[in-house]
Design brief:
The complex is a heterodimer of chains A (563) and B (312).
Chain A lengths: L7 H10 L5 H13 L5 H15 L18 E2 L13 E7 L3 E7 L2 E11 L9 E6 L12 E12 L2 E6 L4 E6 L15 H4 L4 E18 L6 E11 L2 E7 L10 E12 L2 E6 L4 E4 L8 H7 L1 E2 L11 E7 L3 E6 L5 E11 L2 E7 L10 E12 L2 E6 L5 E4 L14 E2 L2 H6 L3 E13 L4 E5 L11 E2 L3 E2 L3 E11 L4 E6 L1 H8 L3 H24 L3 E11 L2 E11 L4 H12 L4
Parallel strand pairs in A: 1-2, 5-7, 11-13, 15-16, 19-21, 23-24, 29-31
Antiparallel strand pairs in A: 2-4, 2-6, 3-4, 4-5, 6-7, 6-8, 9-10, 9-12, 10-11, 12-13, 12-14, 16-18, 16-20, 17-18, 18-19, 20-21, 20-22, 24-28, 24-30, 25-28, 26-27, 28-29, 30-31
Chain B lengths: L11 E3 L2 H6 L2 E3 L9 E3 L5 E2 L1 E16 L2 E10 L2 E7 L4 H15 L5 E12 L5 E13 L1 H26 L5 H6 L4 H13 L6 H15 L14 H5 L15 H12 L5 E2 H10 L4 H15 L2 E5 L2 E4 L3
Parallel strand pairs in B: 1-5, 7-9
Antiparallel strand pairs in B: 2-3, 3-4, 5-6, 5-8, 6-7, 8-9, 10-12, 11-12
Helix pairs in contact in B: 3-6, 8-9, 9-10
Classes of the chains: A alpha+beta (563), B alpha+beta (312).
């Protein structure tokens, strides 16, 4: 190559350091850094020199680690117990003053602060010291407050001791300075916000529906009359429970003050109790019932466990009836099927008699949502709740290929869903990936030949991979079942077992890591979401096939980068 | 909102070495099991990260509790340091293999998932590194994919950072300024802690990476010149006059001692950190400290690891 000359400067330096190094080898190395490792020669210099030094057996400067023993925490109650060089000190103090100051530290403007603190904040005679706050703890060091300082050090200078509150130091407020301000607002909030809130809220809303209900007390002492229903404003709808009389008619506009938000499973509800005040509200421009009905219409992607009074349109994929004998010895029939809408799929269970054809469009009213195996199941109690639509609301969806593309972050922040397709990069490969044993009774994965529930026994062998997919913003644990694993790895169950037997499980995991760590995967399947995060159950998995160039072009288009 | 704060897994932040090396703001979890973070200037809250680079160093050390390993990965912007601890025996076979290949002269690309670690110096300075969780040797294709992902993640943070400039530093204001929700916490902390800086530095790595990925020959010059080996390797005693914008490493060390020494001397880590902040490598700083003490004699070490200027 004619461009060897461009490494000349660097080569000279390498040769100076490593006299015996072969020039052709040096060129080769620089080219390799540039072309393979994407590091230009000037930046590669140090690495290349080190490489030839090692090759020549020369001394190489080592990474120094002057390990310092961790300094034990020193807990004191008075400044007088402190010595000049004490570090990692814990002490409770009263903050007397706090004077922030912008100071340039190594070319960067930083806020530091000076002030006074006094020891023995709770009782007795106090001693006052200076302090310097290097870590911008201004929020927790308001004058008048009493705080616990942890990890602070003593600074001894010009015969004076003071306290250094460092960046890693911790400041815990024990008593607020000034007047504590807690505000409970009576201002009404939109229903969409009320649903996210905790505690007491006020809303202005129209009564969308209501019906009398009864709750059987758990202690068997009888029943309680309640009213259930649904409220709506233009931002959304929310269910309510009234623990007392609720005489407002469907359609009326009311202001509800000081109701409590409680959650039934994953669904927020407005609880109307003794402290709640309800009064008619007058606003002629407030959304009409008709407008609000459409707000109330749900899609499958919006279903949450415990939701009630759902209005939704679905397309039926299949339908079955099953007869069983319940605990009371009665024979009952439950009908159910897979249903879809453009946002995903779920199951529909009906306790009423109905037998829709595959492909039928159903409009459901007053449906409720129950979770079954971590995914939403629409339930209706009577066939009256169903209207068979002759006029399809969307072009018929092909169930064989109905995967709704959902961004991983939207998925993790939403509810459990079926029929989704998402993508992420593999950042962890669980050590129990590969062959697993399931309890023959409950299908749970056994550990060391034992089922958590059913004890030691001979398990049924199965295949499963457990990865974590991560897109840099969100992540989800991902379970890949037998078929998908065999297709993804190109090995069937017997071959996987042989690989583990021949190479140990750790060896098999290492091959998975080599193949899949940091690879982007596309997953078709369902997502189970709870407060601990999301689990993807993959029906099928594909490795992303874009070239780096395609990926880079997409990024440049998205962010308007021009090279 | 989500009241239940059971621990969910921390997402692996994609970031280049430069952004991580520049970070000196830790956030320690309040409770025993709460995650801790390193917060970068661009507002990334890093507990876990996916990083990559060419292997640049690997060392095994023996301690009372067993072997542990330290290693460097170089990406287009700088060096990521990571370690495999003695209590991670499940990773020892793999890191030994990497050590062997490295020592036999092989160089190769790696991607690593690691947990953020940091190391404080007395003046509040900080070194950042990772403890390995998963790593693997990768080909150029996969590495380039990572470069693209890290570029996009950095672009996203730059965008959020710029959106935050005109905004009040409250979560609500940042949200309405367009800062994505996962970056809001970190942005509040970062903007409150770091002074103003030139974001162009962070663009260089992105442009380099994207041009590598697309096979374009565009060359992007980093604005501040990196200190080169010639400067740090000049023989002892010579007056070094090569003009470097970031300053000579010895001068920085001497100046740091002059400013900070209040009688007890300045500790080793503070000095190294000062040099690193000025753009020098840790090794250069270490060499220069030895040189100033043992050869030039311009500093003394009255007690272990604390340095003072030699009295006139």
């Amino acid at each position: 190559m004619s461009d060897d000359g461009r490494y000349a400067t660097q080569i000279a330096v390498v040769k100076e350091e490593c006299k015996d190094a072969d020039e052709a080898e040096i060129i080769k190395e620089f080219r390799r850094y540039e072309e393979e490792f994407l590091i230009p020669p000037e930046d590669a210099l140090r690495s290349v020199i080190r490489k030839f030094q090692i090759a020549a057996g020369q001394e190489v400067s080592t990474i120094s680690s002057r390990s310092r023993p961790a300094i034990a925490e020193k807990k004191v109650t008075k400044f007088s117990e402190l010595k000049d060089d004490d570090k990692n000190v814990t002490i409770e103090v009263a903050v007397v003053s706090y004077i922030p100051k912008i100071q340039t530290v190594r070319g960067e403007e930083r806020q530091i602060a000076y002030g006074w603190v006094e020891d023995s904040p709770w009782e007795g005679e106090r001693e006052r010291w200076d302090f310097t706050d290097w870590g911008d703890h201004s929020q927790n060091l308001t004058p008048g407050s009493i705080v616990r300082l942890e990890g602070v050090s003593v600074n001894f200078w010009n015969d004076r001791r003071s306290i250094n509150i460092n960046r890693p130091s911790r400041v815990t407020v024990l008593k607020e300075g000034g007047q504590p301000v807690t505000k409970i607002s009576d201002e009404p909030v939109p229903i969409s916000e009320a649903g996210e809130a905790e505690g007491i809220v006020s809303v202005v809303a129209r009564v969308l529906s209501k019906k009398d209900d009864q709750i059987v007390k758990k202690d068997g002492s009888g029943t309680l009359d309640i009213v259930r229903g649904r409220l709506a404003d233009p931002s959304g709808t929310i269910g309510f429970i009234s623990w007392r009389d609720f005489e407002h008619e469907v359609g009326s506009l009311i202001k509800i003050d000081r109701a409590q938000i409680r959650r039934f499973r994953d669904t927020p509800e407005i609880n109307i109790g003794d402290l709640t005040k309800i009064e008619p509200f007058h606003d002629s421009s407030f959304a009409s019932m008709d407008d609000l009905q459409s707000v109330n219409r749900s899609t499958i992607s919006e279903l949450r466990d415990g939701a009630r009074d759902i209005e939704i349109t679905v397309q039926v994929e299949n339908w079955q009836a099953r007869t069983f004998t319940n605990a009371d010895g009665e024979e009952r029939t439950v009908r159910s099927g897979d249903v879809m809408d453009p946002t995903g799929r779920c199951r529909l269970t009906s306790w009423g008699e109905m037998s829709p054809e595959p492909g039928a469009f159903l409009h459901l009213k007053g449906a409720r949502v129950q979770f079954w195996q971590g995914s939403p199941d629409l339930v209706i109690d009577s066939a009256d709740q169903v209207i068979d639509l002759s006029d399809p609301p969307w072009d018929a969806i092909d169930p064989a290929d109905h995967w709704v593309e959902v961004d991983l972050t939207d998925l993790v922040n939403g509810g459990s869903r079926r029929g989704i397709r998402t993508a992420g990069t593999v950042v962890a490969i669980a050590n129990n990936s590969g062959i697993i044993e399931r309890c023959p009774e409950c299908r749970r994965v056994m550990r060391e030949g034992e089922c958590a529930e059913h004890g030691p026994q001979r398990g049924d062998e199965d295949v499963r991979l457990r990865f974590v997919l991560d897109d840099g913003i969100s992540n989800a644990s991902t379970l890949i079942g037998k078929e998908a694993t065999e297709a993804l790895t190109g090995m069937d169950q017997a071959q996987i077992r042989d690989a583990i037997d021949a190479n140990t499980r750790a060896g098999y995991i290492a091959t998975l890591r080599e193949r899949f760590l940091a690879r982007k995967l596309h997953v078709n399947g369902r997502a189970m979401v709870d407060t601990q995060g999301a689990i993807l159950m993959a029906d099928s998995v594909e490795v992303d096939t874009r070239t780096p160039e395609e990926a880079a072009n997409e990024v440049m288009a998205r962010w308007g980068v021009v090279l | 909102m989500n009241q239940a704060t059971r621990r969910s897994r921390q997402t692996a932040i994609r970031l280049f070495a430069q952004e991580y090396m520049d970070a000196d703001l830790p956030e320690e979890g309040a409770g025993e099991y709460d995650p801790s973070f390193v917060i970068t200037k661009l507002g990334a809250k890093v507990n876990r990260a996916l990083v990559g680079g060419v292997i640049d160093r690997v060392e095994r050390r023996e301690t009372e509790s067993g072997s542990f390993y330290t290693a460097h990965l170089r990406d287009p912007t700088g060096t990521h340091r990571f370690e495999v601890a003695s209590f991670q025996p499940e990773l020892h076979a793999d890191i030994e293999e990497i050590l062997n290949r490295f020592e036999s002269g092989d160089r190769f690309l790696m991607l690593l998932v690691g947990r953020a670690r940091w190391f404080e110096t007395e003046d509040g300075g900080m070194f950042t590194s990772f403890r390995a969780e998963e790593f693997s040797i990768v080909d150029k294709d996969l590495y380039t994919h990572w470069l693209v992902e890290a570029s996009e993640a950095t672009l996203r943070r730059l965008d959020a950072y710029e959106a935050s400039i005109e905004s009040d530093l409250t979560p609500a204001a940042l949200e309405s300024a367009g800062v994505p929700s996962d970056l809001i916490d970190g942005m509040v902390l970062a903007r409150g802690h770091y002074g103003e800086f030139d974001t162009e530095n962070y663009r260089v790595g992105i442009l380099q990476s994207l041009s590598m990925a697309t096979g374009s020959d565009a060359i992007f010059e980093a604005p501040p010149a990196q200190p080169t080996l010639e400067q740090s390797n000049e023989s002892a005693g010579e007056v070094i006059q090569t003009p470097v914008p970031t300053g000579d490493v010895s001068d920085i060390l001497l100046e740091t001692i002059r400013i900070k020494d209040d009688g007890d001397g300045v500790d080793y880590d503070t000095l190294v950190h000062a040099a690193v902040v000025a753009g020098h490598s840790r090794e250069e700083a270490e060499d220069a400290i030895d040189n100033l003490r043992d050869i030039e004699g311009s500093i003394i070490e009255p007690r272990f690891s604390f340095f003072r200027l030699t009295p006139q």
